[in-house]
Structures are given as structure tokens and as C-alpha cells.
Amino acid sequence: MSILLRVLGISVLCIAAAAAASPARAQFYEGKTLTLMVNYAAGGTTDVAGRVFARHLPRYLKGEPTVIVANRPGAGGLVGLSYLGSGAVKPDGLTACFCVVNVVAPIIGHAALKVTYDKFIYIGGAAEVNLAYGRRDIPPGMTSNADLAKAQTVFAAGYNPTAVQDIRLKFSLDLLGVKYQMITGFRGANKVLQAIAQKEANFAATSVSGYISQVKPNLVATGVAMPFFYFPMSREGGGYYAVKEIEAMGIPSFHDYYVKLRGEPPSGPVWNAFQLINDLGSAMLRAVLLQTAAPRQAVDELRAAIAGLAGDERFLKEYTRINGLPPDMVDSERGTRLLERLNKVEPETAAILKKIVAQK
Fold first, then answer.
1. Which of 95, 128, 135 is nearest to 278 (CA)?
2. Which residues are within 8 A (CB) of 256 and not within 5 positions of it... i.e. 6 or more apart?
3. Domain range enclosing 323
4. pLDDT digits (tens, 9 = 90+) for 314-353
5. E-strand stretches of the chain
6. What CATH number is given to the structural domain containing 76?
7. H or E, element range at 192
């Protein structure tokens, strides 16, 4: 063997050995603790879902690190989002947000949002639709969901004027021509549930998981409340994605409810704005985000771990048991496109949203 070949061979081995020992090839999360920061209060549906993710993520993160949950609620989720993206948290990949992404605040330029969403990288998550429910004693009395059109005094419970839950309630009641008053500021689904039970409010919206796990056994089964309609995500080109599990419970979509009441499908600029916010809000209901300055290896490993959960039987079984439905997993590509849509909202739609936010 020539000296040149021998030198080349030794060089190749040295390069290979160096690459194998390179820190870049180390398992990023090994021996570390990953914090999932939930931007809603402990005990609520977002917190419960986040803890299910936290229990199963270690199996799919290389090195099986510790994953813990910390809550930072406030201002309809804006406090937690602002905290993560404003520089208060070191972008080391060790703090991710398990968030309800407020899709209204950046469109209207809400003062409580201290950061722009281009400060975040979408990792993965789960979409979930919402539904509206209310007390049966809403005057003059609700014996069927059709009676909502005759309601005299609706007091709708919300989180924050820019929260998607509040926006859904306002849009739907406006489109139906039902007079209402918003009572907002409740810190999580449990507080709204208590408000309905204690007659502080008589109408609300919740995620399907919240309805199945909390509202149905505590309010519907006891005869205090009833469901009215759910808010499905729309299809491109028209129509919507029906959720068979919800419709099997006898709960119509808002679209079908409106058609039955009005004799024609909803349409127009207000309806289009409603669909946009509902679609984005549903798809971004359970989103895992990292800061854009987080190490690329952390981004890649966490994305792979979330993708792994999508096919994990143990995770899917527990999520379904707790939430009532299997998760509609959103991958990083789809989630990134959704975040980008927030930068392409038409001025007319933004004006409609500003008006609906200002309504009491």
C-alpha cells in the first residue's frame, strides 16, 4: 500500500472517529429536563392534554429526558406566549409552549401580545373542534336546541375579548340574531363550568374534550344544561368536515343549525371571517412551539418525538380515554402553513374582527 493511500486511510478513519465523537451527534435532550409551558390554568382541558403529551414524549425523545409541565395563564393565553417569545426564557430548546395559540390577537394588534408569532417555530400538536352549550333555564326555557333562537337573556361566558372561544360565541350569536351580553375574564374551562353551574352565566363554548369530560357528566347529565351546536372546520371549496362522534350525540354543526333556522346556508364577509378564525383556532388549539433561536437539533428531535406520538397506541388510548376523541394530529408542515396564514389576512376581515372584539 502506498504511503499516500495509507495517509488517506488514516485521515478518513480520524474524520469518522471525530464525527462519531462530535457533540452534534449527541442526543440533545439526554440527561436534561424539558418544560412544557401551558398557557392556561392547571386543571383545564389544555392543561390536561399537555400532561398527556408530557407523559408519553420521553419515549420518543432520544435519551428519554424528564418532561415536566408548568402553567403560565392569563389574558386568553397571551401571557404565556409573550413570556416564551419575549426573551424572558433562554432559547436553549429546554422550554416549549404547549399552547392554545390566540389567532385573533396578532390580526388586530392586541396590546397584551408582546411578541410576534414569527418568534416561534411550530413543532406539532393536535387540532380539536369546539361546541356551544347552555343552561336549560335560559329564558323562556330551552327544551330543544332550536329554542335558542327565542332566547331573551343570554349571558355568554368567555376568557378574554380576543380569545377564540369568545369570538366564536359572538359570531354565532350575531349570525343567529340572538341578543347577548359577554361576561369575560374566566381563567380556564373549569371556571366557566363553575360559572354556568352557579348561574353566573348561561351560555358558553368548550372543546369537545371539555364537553365530554366535564360539561356532559356535570351539567348535561344532571339536566342543568344542553348542547346546541358544534363548530366544524371548513373544507376548501365549500362545506365542512363533519365530526361523526359529535353528530352521533345528536349535536348538529353550526352550519346545519343555521340552515334549519334560516332556510339557507350562512354567507357573507362576517361568515367568512368567522370561518377563518374558527379554522385557525381549532387547528392551533393544542400547539407545541419553540423559539426560532432554539438549537436546530432540539427542533428536529422534538418534531420527531411529536410525530412518533401520532402512531403510539398507548398515547392515543390515554388521550382518547381522557378527551373522548382521538387527537387530530397536526404535523410541523401543516402547522407552519397555518401560522403563516395569520400574516395574510385581508383588511376587511381584520376590520370585522376588531369590531367583534370590541362588542360587549
1. 128
2. 229
3. 25-127+282-346
4. 999 999 998 888 999 999 999 998 888 887 899 999 999 9
5. 33-38, 66-71, 95-99, 120-127, 130-135, 154-157, 180-183, 203-207, 225-231, 286-291, 328-330
6. 3.40.190.150
7. helix 189-197
The verdict on residue 1 lying in a domain is no
69: closest CA among 102, 42, 30, 32?
Answer: 42
SS3 content of the chain, % helix, strand, coil (to 5): 50, 20, 35
**Residue-wise over 223-256: b if at least 16 C-beta within 10 A, else e?**
ebbbbbbbbbbbeeeeebeebeebeebebbbbbb
Q: Are strands 328-330 and 120-127 parallel, antiparallel or unpaired?
A: antiparallel
Distance (Å) of CA 129 to CA 164, 241, 242, 253: 11, 10, 10, 11
Round to whole Å and give the CA distance between 113 and 85.
10
Q: Which of 280, 298, 332 is the last residue of a domain?
A: 280
User: Which letter does DSSP use for residue 75 in this model?
Assistant: G
Q: Among 255, 280, 305, identify where a domain stops.
A: 280
Regarding whether 176 and 103 lie in a shared domain, the answer is: no
Write the DSSP string, 93-124: SSEEEEE---SSHHHHT-TT--S-GGGEEEEE
Q: How many domains does the chain have?
A: 2
What would the pLDDT profile of 272-330 be if each residue is shown by its tens digit?
Answer: 999 999 999 999 989 999 999 999 999 999 999 999 999 999 999 999 998 888 999 99
Same domain, 231 and 294: no
Which residue type is seen at 26?
Answer: A
Q: Which helix (H) or strand (E) holds 170?
A: helix 164-176
